C-alpha cells in the first residue's frame, strides 16, 4: 500500500467499532455461473461470514435469467453456513406462476427474508409481472402475510428512470406502505445525499430502517460503467484519481485510495446515525473485509 494510504488507515482504524454498538451488517453475493466463480464465492463466504453478518443476500438476474442458480445458491448457503439468506425476488420474472413457485420454495425451505425489487428489464421487454416493486410487496403480504421480512431498494440520488427525486421518494414510500420492513440503498459516494434522502423519507412518514449500500472500489472502468448505468454519481475528484492510476497501470495505488474513500464514507455514515452497512461484495472478500477491518468490525483483530 502506498505510504499515504497507510497513514490514512492508521489514523482511522477501529474508529467505528461495532463492539457494543447496535448496527446491521450484511453482504450481497451473486449466483456463480461456472466453477471459477463458485470457488470465488466459497472463498468470500469463508472470509466474510466470520464478521457476523445479520444476513446475506443473493441477486436475481434480469427477467429471471439466474433463477435456478439463485435458488441453488440460496439453499446452499442456508444449509452450509446456517446463516439467514435473503434471495432477491424481481417483478421481471417470467410470469406470476414462477413468482408463486419461488415464494413457495423459499417458504418451505425456511427462508425468512426477501429483497423485493422491480429488477432490470431484460432486452426487448418493457414490463414484468408487476409494474412496480410495491405491487410485488403487496402481493407477498396478501398471500404470505408476515411470513417474510421484506427489504426493498431505494435511491438516494434517485432512480435513473424516475421523473424526479420527488417521484422516486413517492415510489419508495409506496413500497413501505405496501409492507416493506426495511430498505437498502443503491450505492453512493456522497454521505450527504444519504442523510438528505433519509430526512426527506422521514418527512413523508417512512419509519423503516434505511441501510446504506456500500460498493468497494477495486477498479476504474467497471465502476465508471456501472455507475453510469445505475445512476450512481461517481464524484469527479474520485474519478480523476482512479482514471490516472488506471492509465498508469498502478492498481495498488488505485485500490489503496479506493479503500480510503470507502472507509471514510462508512465512518461518516455510521457517525451520522446510519443503522448499518450492506456491502455489494461482487463475490470478493478482500476489499470488503479490508474496509470492515478499518472500521473495527473484524473480530479477528
For the residues shown, what is the average pLDDT? 88
Structural class: alpha/beta
Low-pLDDT runs of 5+ residues are 1-21
Using the alpha-carbon principal axes, give the shape: globular
Distance between the termini: 19 Å
CATH class: Alpha Beta
**What is the count of β-strands?**
9
Strands side by side in the biggest sheet: 7-6-5-4-3-2-1-9-8
What's the alpha carbon Rg, rounded to whole Å? 19 Å
In a few lines, what is going on in this structure?
This protein is an alpha/beta fold and 301 residues long.
Describe the structure.
The longest helix has 21 residues, at 251-271. Helix content is 48%, strand content 13%. Strand 4, helix 5 (133-144) and strand 5 form a beta-alpha-beta unit. A nine-stranded parallel beta sheet has the order 7-6-5-4-3-2-1-9-8, with helices on one face. Helix 5 runs parallel beside helix 6 and helix 10 (251-271) crosses helix 11 (286-294). It has a single domain, classed as TIM Barrel (Alpha-Beta Barrel). It is built from eleven helices and nine strands. The protein is an alpha/beta fold and 301 residues long.
